[in-house]
Amino acid sequence: MWLVRAAHVAAVAAAVAGSALVAPALARSTPAAAAGTGVDVTPTLSSTPFGAPPGQRVTHTITLSATGTGSLPAVRVTFTTTVALDGVAANASAGSCPIVTPLTVVCDLGNLDFAGTNSTGPAGPSSPQVTITGTVHSGTAGGALVQNLVNITAGAADADPTNNVTSNAYLVPGGSTAPLAPSSGRPLAEPAASRAPAHGMSPVVVVALSVLAVLVVAALVIVLRRRRRPSPADGDDGGARGV
């Protein structure tokens, strides 16, 4: 009996010792859960001058600010507008802008550490910026809606993804400065024959009355000529009186 109990105690001790040795190995082989970023990135957009008319040069400045500290991988800034920018150009304080078109600009800023160090290289700016310049398309009609939109995306979600979009908008104050085709400009003057008289009669009625007036005048002229023509009797009497 004593030998059985001793064997049992030894087995339990071995099992405990074995579990103590296996636990660290299991801990090393189990992947750690990805830690969420504690930084919240928010974009701001300033357009100078705001409300630029067609043909006016404008500068859009996008600034990334953050609350909290931490890194955010693969940060991308996407700018879109509803009215084309002529001669558009873009510059980023970090990374590059692979897509630059009159309506869309995309800049990849890389991995950013908002504690003050860019993880892709040496210390980077604490508030990364993207600057976009261009001229509001000269053919834009007055009253057109200009809406500028900025969206921030990254390889990992920040602390509050709901504030990663910002925008501004206005109506174009002036008309187009480009030459307008007759069909898109003011209506051409109507031909004289198509205009209605001031008294409101239609052109058909006016023409009919004009023709009737001409016929009446012609009839009166014929009647007057017949009355002035001397009759044959008047000619004979005149001859007799002359004798």
From TrEMBL:
Protein name: DUF11 domain-containing protein
Transmembrane segments: 204-224
Signal peptide: 1-34
Keywords: Membrane, Signal, Transmembrane, Transmembrane helix
Lineage: superkingdom: Bacteria
Organism whose genome encodes this protein: Planosporangium thailandense
